Amino acid sequence: MCIRDRAQRLRAICGARGIPTFNELILGLPGQTYASFTATLAEATPPLPHHDFVLFLCRLIDNAELGSPASRAQHGLETRRCQWTTSTGVDAIIDEFQEVVVATRDLPLADWRRAYRFAFLTAALYNLRLLRVVLYAGADGLGGGRRALLVALADELVAAAPGSVYAELAATLDRYADSILAGGPFVLPLVEPEPGAAPVPVDEAVASAALARYDQFLAETEAAIRALHGLAPSTTDVLAEAVQLQRLITPRFGEPAPCTRRFAHAWPAYL
Predict the structure, then answer these.
(1) pTM of the full predicted structure?
(2) Residue 23 CB burial class (10 angstroms; 0-12, 13-18, ≥19)
């Protein structure tokens, strides 16, 4: 049994026992391609209620081998020097600058940008629970796998109509990516310009935009998944119920009153 299979088996055992687990991933490593990165990230989104992933951008550290002139040339590294701006608060630390890999010989800059979009959209959908139920139903329930589903939703960022929620998510992700590529901060205020506003991580900015128009976000998501699987519109199939349940269990703005729904499928047992 290879190390990856052993790790996945251990993760499943922890999941069955309710033990939290997480994967640590790095975007921008030598040898990484868009296809390999998206496949790896999809594997880090299993249907386990206490699992998350942590995503880092590859950064070059003084005196580390990857940052040497020989390694830079060998792997075709392209970097930006960016400011790591921390949130204000009791544990605020001194801002610092870090050298971030934004392209390699195997991951051109355009693919890095696509991977960045894919990664932090997935972080909002999975880690921040915007679409946990829908992802389970859309991938494992309908077939096709999580990678195909996540890629389809990331592609929706490109195809989104002006004024749609996915267009706003694309603009949010691009604002953060553009800041890095321009040598600016990693994290930004939710709205610019907003003097004195605390910076927010990109996945939280994506989640905030989606939650502000959550019903429309779910409708656009459901339409994209139905197009992926060739499904006709429905109000009673598994996907429709998954969307309804996701709407009920996701905390959001302006929904203080309790409500009830009747479902045909045993969702608590499934989850």
Answers:
(1) 0.91
(2) middle
